């Protein structure tokens, strides 16, 4: 029997889904503005210089400490009312947005600046995990793929819009420390709006419905990593798709470093196509278009071909785009590569998100999302850091482009190998039996 597709209007008719989506959009607008404002302050500020090692250090300080804490905070998403967690987290990171902005205005660099930014980014990931873990509470399981595609796609596009706003504010307020600080501070509006919208939920409506936790909070938090890893391992659909996504993230980290340095030191404007931070804005728009297309097409592609063929096709497409569009290293081909690679990567991400939401039990879902987010961060930081050690300052390195393409193929091999693993689910309390009628199952 053919599955009936719901349009976005049908989902937006569900008040709780609409509120959850609005919470996500406000949060991700603030994220996009904050990240672009900070990138402008650190990478494209005439008062500062940035080399590959400094860029890699920035990524490491921003993402790695949270990656250590992430799995443990996942236990909190499965222990406390997720509504309260999302509200408190947003208010907290709004405060740290202001601290980061003050640090930029004061001309601080290195560790003092990154510590404040670390808290904003880390709690932002925590909020994202909470929103993803909450989605099955507001939408029927049969429509999770579509609901997730709409929420993730709209959120990613809103983040791109936030980044574009940062570039616009920077043009008005100035590119130096003062203007960059004021631009970055505007992100506080998104965080506080997100907290206010989330506060309108009734207590407990976002879960968790059951708390599979020891009474001692410290023990519960310490167990987060182990439980998340167990639930992931016992769910082959999640393990395999996650391996594919991590390969994409590693390749993306390599490409990101190449693109940043090309835009900063190597490329020049070509007509309406810009180098520098304006070029990064155009790359973000191209990527946003890819995310939008993925959000529209993923559910239909999965229904038509199945999740296995969809992920295989996405990885092959990214490898081909990396070689065909990445190697020329010109502004037009970089934009085209951004569109194709982010489009295909988003398809894989939507498949992973839905696999976790559908196949992992609610009592451990927050920990699995937090573990997934942590691996996501560690993989990108590792790729960026290794790339920084070998890349020339101008970013021109065909060998790194070929390496990125190879990572997609390695991810494809890992995906097929892990998917073939026929492992008996030994802990039914942690994971659900796969539903063969579901496209992700």
TrEMBL record:
Q: Does the UniProt entry include the keyword 4Fe-4S?
A: no
Membrane topology value: Multi-pass membrane protein
Instruction: Please report the stretch or stretches of sequence annotated as the Major facilitator superfamily (MFS) profile domain.
Output: 1-423
Predominant place of localization: membrane
Organism of provenance? Lentzea indica
Keyword list, A-Z: Cell membrane, Membrane, Transmembrane, Transmembrane helix
Q: Where in the cell is it found?
A: Cell membrane
- Give me the segments passing through the membrane: 53-73, 85-108, 147-169, 181-198, 240-263, 275-297, 334-356, 368-393, 399-420
The protein here is known as MFS transporter
- UniProt cross-references to Pfam families, sorted A to Z: MFS_1
CDD domains this protein is in? MFS_MefA_like
